[in-house]
Amino acid sequence: MEERSRRDATSRDPTFIPRSQLLSSDDVARAVRRMAHEVIEHTRSVDELVVVGLQTGGVAFATRLAEVLGEITGREVRCGQLDVAFYRDDLARNPAPTPASTVIDHDLTDQTVVLVDDVLFTGRTVRAALNALTDWGRPRAVQLAVMVDRGHRELPIRPDFVGKNLPTSLDEAIVATLDGVWIGTKSAP
Amino acid sequence: MTSSIRGENLLSLNDLDRDAIVEVLDTAEAFVEVNRRTIKKVPALKGRVVASLFFEESTRTRLSFETAAKRLSADVLSLAVASSSMKKGESLRDTIATVDALGIDAVVMRHQSSGAALQVSRYVPHVRVINAGDGLHQHPTQGLLDAFTVRQVLAERRGAAGVETGSELFEGLRVLIVGDIRHSRVARSDIAAYVALGAEVRVAAPGTLLPEFLADWPVGVVDDFDEALEWADVVALLRLQRERGSGSFVPSLGEFTTSFGLTVERARRLRTDALIMHPGPMNRGVEIDSLVADSAAAVITRQVQNGVPIRMAVLYLCVAGSHGGGSQ
Q1: Does A135 sit within 8 Å of B41, measured CB to CB?
Q2: What's the number of domains chain A is made of?
């Protein structure tokens, strides 16, 4: 089991060298359930919620969060996914990242959008996502749910719902999936 | 061989390996989604300057490149060659130097001379050059959008997205390219793309419209056109390029149509699931019958629609992350 979860952690990112597992899949499931209850507390009506997962790590969490929201409320909660490659602020500095798919089938005007990501770090991905969302209308509110907040923000962005706060150093790396959360390092490319 | 066009020029598909081509097709998939949005614009190339230099006439390529650049938020400098100083005798080199002096990151260019885009890339090494057609040589984005269109249609038939199916569906795919191969840069780019992706390509044409040195090409030559139609999964027709003198390579247009035109009767020989393609502009009634061009098997309109997302993908990959002259 330990071996399997170690493979889960590295399958997403082959350069990741896990040091230790911080949360089990059960821990993650409980955290998602707690966040779902918090989302419901902070919304007027689940019918105006749209959960949007950020590619690639946030999509699985968004799908799960929308499912749990549906289980709790008995309503269908809309879910989409957003890739922010074209909105990044480092496109002039780094090679163009390969975009993943974006699926947002609703006009977001007057909806409450819950952006979901796996790990909140510098905040630059969220900044890009906020920029992108305006192309689908004017949401009534945008909230941010992350599985792990590891600190080191470079922009004035804070999450509304957090699965786990994990203070880290800059040379550490975090992998968060539905199978668990690991801390480790990145191997030199 | 290049395995990615990121930050590079795009001069010829012969330079690209399978990975590089698949990367463009996968990236274009994301831009298809952008083009379906209400607001069809992303800030990926904000502040970048793309010069559009068409020394030879074009409708769809120029419009779709300029649309692509604008939807990426780049600024577009469009040179109308007919009303430019080229008419006063200014050389290609001086024209490029003038445009470059305005501060550009990329040039999209079409020229009647084979190799013109390569030449320009040597004049301005700090600018990304994207070949939009050079003489008889290459038309890389047409080859890419043709492969993209085939992948998209075949993936849809399997009920999947093109990215998910990967590009395995090209393995063993049978592509027949018909007509004026000799004068066609589209044929050269199509062949490079399909062969790199693993398809089998055959060409059909009157002997006079086959290129010299065909033995060096990775294609088979068809003896019996009617038989080849039954063989093909994809039939790509080419325009008879009368501006390149191809009219003198066939006895008459009527004879060309009789032997190698896709008439209604011939189209009946096609497999029921075969795709009919044409890069446009079409000579209806010459290389393709009007009814065939408008039939359900024809994906010609799809090819045009895919022009913008493919060119967005090419501009995005080549220009983002490269350090052009626009910031000087």
Answers
A1: yes
A2: 1
Cα separation of A52 and A41, whole Å? Answer: 18
Q: Give A93's contacts in chain B (Cβ within 8 Å).
A: 321
At B170-184, the pLDDT tens digits run 999 999 999 999 999
Residue A189 lies in a domain: no
User: Does any domain span residue A63?
Assistant: yes
Of A87, A95, A102, the CB nearest to B30: A102
Mean of the per-residue pLDDT values for chain B?
92
Task: Say yes or no for a CB contact (<8 Å) between A136 and B7.
Answer: no
ipTM over 0.90: no
Tens of pLDDT, residue by residue over A41-59, are 999 899 999 999 999 999 9
A132: closest CA of chain B, how far (Å): 8
Q: Tell me the pLDDT tens digit for each residue of B216-228.
A: 999 999 999 999 9
Model pLDDT, residue B166: 66
Decide: residue B137, CB within 10 A, 0-12 exposed, 13-18 middle, 19+ buried: buried
Q: Please, what are the domains in chain B?
A: 13-137+307-322 (3.40.50.1370), 140-305 (3.40.50.1370)
3-state helix, strand, coil split of chain A in percent (to 5) is 35, 30, 40
- The domain in which residue A103 lies consists of 2-183
Q: Do the chains contact at B321 and A96, CB–CB below 8 Å?
A: yes
A188 lies in some domain: no
- What CATH number should be reported for the domain holding residue A98? 3.40.50.2020
pLDDT at position B159? 82
Residue B321 CA to residue B3 CA, distance in Å, equals 17
Other CB atoms within a 10 A radius of the CB of residue A4 amount to 9
